[in-house]
Amino acid sequence: MWHWSLLCVFLLVPLANSTAPISFEANPDTKRLYDDLLSNYNRLIRPVVNNTETLTVWLGLKLSQLIEVNLKNQVMTTNLWVKQRWFDYKLRWDPEEYGGVEQLYVPSEHIWVPDIVLYNNWDGNYEVTLMTKATLKYTGEVFWEPPAIYKSSCEMNVEYFPYDEQICFMKFGSWTYNGAQVDLKHLDQIPGSNLVQVGIDLTEFYLSVEWDILEVPATKNEEYYPDTLEPFSDITFKLTMRRKTLFYTVNLIVPCVALTFLTVLVFYLPSDSGEKVTKMDPPNSMIKNLRVIPSFLWHVACFC
């Protein structure tokens, strides 16, 4: 009987221990740092010591995917990472006082973030919709790279379709702060120049089956708006795209040229030739096949 009692003891001891409170605080230094930084932090106030001071925000884009270029509605849909960097003097600390912690990840909803929007947006979603975490450095430097899907208005020119090139612009800037409050600069911008030749990061770009990206420069601009005393700064990204023409060449251009050539050859046949009568007979005429071309172009226009 004693061995049954011993077995019960072994079974009940782990059960009793499982009901004891468990501490999930794996890094107390990080928790203490988080509480010290954000306990009295006001995310609605621009992080500058003096109200007349200008806060510099560095901006860059990483293009992940060119989702669609809609020629009919003149809209370009892109999947982007909006890379932003700025300094917040209220988010500095001494790593020696917090167990050597030099970096902290915090929800972006808990700190001040610049209200960068796409000015030439098409569908109404001007701002970033997914609020990812921001990275804080002990020096006060803040990094934030939220993903976003933008639909930007783009003036299309189909004069040389299908051998066309399209140029689309994406204009980003602060919706609230003027250039004296938030100065927008490109991440790769060098002093004395407002132009960056490679303004969009394409290292993780998924190649498009329909378009080739030729150029992606970026330019910093300053513009005055009605009833504003200070200019608003923005960064305009330019995307130059060239259509991949193999599909249209094989399925549209070559058949059109071949049918046209064969139709012209019909007139060189003898007048009493049966082949000529057959070719020119409306039910069997090759000219009838040309009627398919406008229908094909209509479907292409709807697809684009």
Automatic annotation (TrEMBL):
It comes from Drosophila melanogaster (Fruit fly). Residues 31-245 form the Neurotransmitter-gated ion-channel ligand-binding domain. The gene is nAcRbeta-96A-RB. Belongs to the ligand-gated ion channel (TC 1.A.9) family. Acetylcholine receptor (TC 1.A.9.1) subfamily. The keyword Cell inner membrane does not apply. This is FI19416p1. It is found in: Postsynaptic cell membrane. Keywords: Cell membrane, Disulfide bond, Glycoprotein, Ion channel, Ion transport, Ligand-gated ion channel, Membrane, Postsynaptic cell membrane, Receptor, Signal, Synapse, Transmembrane, Transmembrane helix, Transport. The chain crosses the membrane at residues 246-269.
